[in-house]
UniProtKB/TrEMBL annotation:
The keyword Signal applies. Transmembrane segments: none annotated. This is Glycoside hydrolase family 5 domain-containing protein. GO terms for molecular function: hydrolase activity, hydrolyzing O-glycosyl compounds. It comes from Candidatus Curtissbacteria bacterium RIFCSPHIGHO2_01_FULL_41_11. Residues 46-176 form the Glycoside hydrolase family domain. Belongs to the glycosyl hydrolase 5 (cellulase A) family. It comes from the Bacteria. The keyword Hydrolase applies. Keywords: Glycosidase, Hydrolase, Signal. Residues 1-20 form the signal peptide. Coiled coil: none annotated.
Amino acid sequence: MKIRVLFVCLLILVAYIANAFANPIPLPLSSRSSTPQVKYGFSWSFENADWYGLNSRDAYVKLLDEVKFDWVRLSFFWDRHVKDGELNLGEIEFAIREAEKRDIKVIVVVGAKTPYHPEYHLPDNIKNQIKFGDTITVDHPIADDLLEIDRIVVQELSKYPNISYWQVENEPFLANIDNLKIGPDLLGAEVDVVRGNDLGHRPIILNHVGPAAFDRQYKKLFEIMKPGDILGVNSYLKTQGVNLFSVSVFGREIRVPWPKWLFWPVQSWVFLSPDYTRLRSEAAEKGLDLWVLEMQADPYVRSISEAQRKDYFFDTGDISRGNDYLEASGVDSIGFWGAAFWLYRERIGDSSWINTISDITSSR
């Protein structure tokens, strides 16, 4: 009898795992036709566009002109926008002004941890004060400098009326490769600085990863937020790591690279994956909207040669299916991740990525 029970349990487990891989993007459970239309945006990094060899300013303007977006998210990179102690926000201000010409709203991200690799965009004098595994709290050596640069950036940019939101930090409670995190106390202090120095008194966005069923860290954000603010999450659909596994044997590191054909499904683990419908209801109870700031809209690309491949484990059909799933979940806004990749693919003769995004945003 015990063997039979174990066998049935094993079959259920195999079926559970097989379903997650066979159907990585869940089918929409309902239609959103009776609810307000979702708003669409994208994240932009001039640095990332430069990496692809694009003319980053021209590429940005092209995207604003050719795709019907409601908002764009721009990040302050401390190491890029402060040189030799001098603040230079010309790049961000250019992007804000170009968006304003087209009636596109802007989100500005401030803090130590902002979108795009390597996440902590810190000048050397700040980076040298941080140790592996630090949780950066209000008592950390860099805290005062961080709060001051937040204040300066907000004061400089708050004059632009099309800045509609300030995002403070990006996934602050998620450790990066150096196991660094932002403490809730510092996050709260940063939000106070932003609110206190914004002439326009704009809402705040705080975000967390797309929380799995057992992840309750996002609830700490509610203690900092006010009605009218935005709870942000992400939605990655098919992910890949750098290594399938890495072990140390007798002092020698053995790494097995992640196969290019293999992906890990994120959204299809029944009872475990993020429940966006529940999250939206929970946010609404606090007077907050729920936005997906980053919906995966590109494959994992770590080199230009990878960006030139013909086939990927993630394709344009996945973008459409992911959008349908999130729309039906009731999220208020969706931000697509991968803008520079779409434009690079178009430059080398593949317009399918940019066309897919354009079709989605124009179908409202």
